[in-house]
Design brief:
The chain is mainly beta. The protein has a single domain, classed as Rieske Iron-sulfur Protein (3-layer Sandwich), CATH 2.102.10.10. The protein is built from four helices and 18 strands. A four-stranded mixed beta sheet has the order 14-15-3-16, with no helix packed on it. The protein has a four-stranded antiparallel beta sheet with strand order 8-5-4-17. Strands 10-11-12-13 form a four-stranded antiparallel beta sheet, with no helix packed on it. Strand 12 and strand 13 (159-162) form a beta hairpin. The model is unreliable at 1-28 (pLDDT under 50). It binds FE2/S2 (inorganic) cluster. FE2/S2 (inorganic) cluster is lined by residues 116, 118-119, 121, 145, 147-148, 150, 163-165.
Amino acid sequence: MERRNFLKVLSATGAVIAINPSTIGQTLMAKDGALYKRYAKVQLVDGSGAPLKADALKTGENYVFNYPYAGTSCLLVNLPMPTAKDVELTDEFGNEYVWKGGVGSKGTIVAYSGICPHQLTHINKNDSFITFRNPGERFAGDIVCDGHTSVYDAERGCRVKEGKAPQPLAAIVLEVGSDNTLWAVGVLGKDKFHEFFGSFRRELKEQFGSKRKAKAKVAERAETVLLSDYTRDIVKL
Ligand code: FES
């Protein structure tokens, strides 16, 4: 087997391992594995604990789940349109990676970290300045951080279309089971978790009890709710 047929990925323990892409189905991968980090495979469930079904997601609705840490919120959207495939992206340091596209029967379901790489505006329980915009809204079809109006292309791996963001939102890697269940399995792209946990100690204590609890890795299940149920104030400028 040629070397390029294997991908180097970070295991949950941080060790670099090589795996054959054929063993991971439709998981979204980095071009050379450098920007993919695998975390626990976590099932998305609704507020009652029932498995979330991919085909039951409302189109254009903003959903939130926390992954890979208890205190890091992610945006889940069933887009109105199928996404592009195999989108080549670049992080703020020039590292290239490939976002494979949306999942689900129509290839429309995407998830991204809710932490903006510009100045760490993030989805939290008090407010959210980050939302997917539907037809009829300003920046329709995009995800916008209204911290300073960075516009991300939701159909193309959240590449930056406008604004000061130095790189795409990190993508949450999703899988859909044969029973239509939804799973998060890793993070693709340069995430901002380290900077986030270093910057919001007081908020994390207020919203999760302590920074330590906010940094706990999510295991097994992640409750997924409407953004409007998760946050008190959705801000769109
Ligand atoms: S923090 Fe998101 S655009 Fe500045």
